Amino acid sequence: MLAAPSVRLSPSVTLLGAQRSAATTAKQYQQLEEDKIIKILTIGATGDQGHPLLEQLIDADMHPVAALRNTSALANTPFADVETVFADLYDPESMIVAAQDMDAIAMHLPFVFDLEKATQLGRNIAAAAKESSVQQIVFNTSCYVADQDNGNPAHDGRRAIEQAIIDSGVRYAIFETKVFMDNMIRSWNKPSIVNSAIFAYPAKPDLQISWICLDDVAAFMVEALQNENLPNGRYAVGGPQALVGDEVAAILSEVAKKPIRFKSMTPDEFASAMSLLVTGSATVEPKSIYSGMASFYSFYNEQPVSPLIADTVEMAKYFKTQPTPLATWAARQDWTDPTDPALAVRMAGMQSNS
After folding, report:
1. What DSSP string describes 160-212?
2. Across residues 64-69, what is the average pLDDT?
3. How far is CA 28 from each of CA 135, 136, 204, 214, 236, rounded to the nearest angstrom?
4. Which of 1-15, 33-47, 268-282 has the lowest mean pLDDT?
5. What is the reported pLDDT for 186?
6. Helix or strand run (H / E) with residue 139
7. How far apart are the first and last CA of the chain?
8. What is d(CA 129, CA 246) in angstroms, rounded to the nearest whole number?
9. What value does the mean pLDDT take over residues 89-94?
10. The whole model's pTM is what?
11. How many CB atoms lie within 10 A of CB 4?
12. Distance between alpha carbon 119 and the CA centroid of its chain, in Å?
């Protein structure tokens, strides 16, 4: 079982929280400046979740350093000026080297449908933090994480990564995000909304989801990096509204100015459709990423109370970030163009990797 969230503050918190007096020495001020988190080793920088994080780290006057196996992967993207460093998540030595001189690690990680590999990945990141100058780890799990294993290796792997972070002895903030609004504008979803006026999702009709946009996830992560008083913990974050599929469709209809209906897919139907889109085959192989996707949503749909509902009151106790309502986010999107707006940047990164 995961350790309970603890409150562990950095050595400078007491001084930062106290009123500075005239007796504060120049040396103490210098130490305070050195203690500020500035240089951020950013893992997952090339993905859809990484782009908003890079933008917000830069806007916050932090210095993101993208950890990449191919250090030219950002060359043809809007983030070409972001510093990069070689790092292989499965090579502990490269991770330790990459973490040197970093103040913190901020990360999104790929889903790994192999529990042993996910466990090793978590250990490598924790070791890199412990054996470097890293003061804090901020991790977006990209999914709900239960308090017990549920047999899905990707989910259970997230729990193993969380535990490695907790056991590292480094300050941490783990964000267990609900479901991303940005899923609605990806190439596996947006064309159906734009071309067929159908919002299809693997959620049963009464499954409530607190949808959250990736910009807000990045904002939570940056706020955690800026707040030395934030207690160590696992923070479940989501949007301000818990919506069922028909309510999502109604909001999209109003924003797109045309009727859009919700189609409830079974998790197996969703996995098959995703497999067909990516591989050309609707057959879902056992232990594939597509069977793993089905497992995630089967778990959500089977719970008596939706685990995808965010407690916004609890969130507000620790964070100033106010999540964006779905209607506000949806109004920023172009519902006449079926193209995924993040596709160009994603493909540029893939071309740099080739």
Report:
1. HHHHHHHHT-SEEEEEEE--BGGGGGSTTTHHHHHHH-EEEES--TT--B--B
2. 97
3. 18, 21, 57, 37, 36
4. 1-15
5. 95
6. strand 136-140
7. 41
8. 44
9. 97
10. 0.88
11. 9
12. 18
